[in-house]
Amino acid sequence: MIKNGTNPYFVKELETGYVVIGDHQYFKGYTLFLCKQHKTELHFLDEPFRTKFLSEMADVAKAVYNAFGAEKMNYECLGNGETHLHWHLFPRKSGDMSIKGPVWWLPKDEMYDDKNRPSKEELEEMKEKLLNELNKL
User: I want to staple 67 with a disulfide (CB 3.0 to 4.6 A). Which of 45, 73, 105, 133 is the partner?
Assistant: First the structure.
């Protein structure tokens, strides 16, 4: 969808991956960084590409942090559902969950509730904020 220009969540292409706003925004600013190479594990990437991929992921996280006023970032690279390298970047703030803990303590039906889908206007505003921060790096 990114390559044919039909992904409404796409923000920016970097050297090693694609920056995409998450389609559910319980954690405002939730962003994904999708690897351009189809690999399932970090250690399957050639070292120079892996180093650049990890560096760019950290840059994307910094942009998310700045764009959405995070107090702390959570990083996940799991791949059990979608076996393609990608990072989940969650900007966190005090009180964003009723209990203090990792994002996966939130019930799935709450995190992925349709009320957490951004409107077209909200999505465009989020993408613009994030793109502005990415362009500063």
Answer: 133
Determine the 3-state secondary structure of 6 from DSSP.
coil
- Report helix angle 47-68 to 120-136, nearest 10: 120
Q: Is the whole model's pTM more than 0.70, yes or no?
A: yes
21/15 Cα distance (integer angstroms): 18
Q: What is the pLDDT along the chain (137 residues), one digit of tens a residue?
A: 888 888 999 999 999 999 999 999 999 999 999 999 999 999 999 999 999 999 999 999 999 999 999 999 999 999 888 889 999 999 999 999 998 999 999 999 999 999 999 999 999 999 999 999 999 98
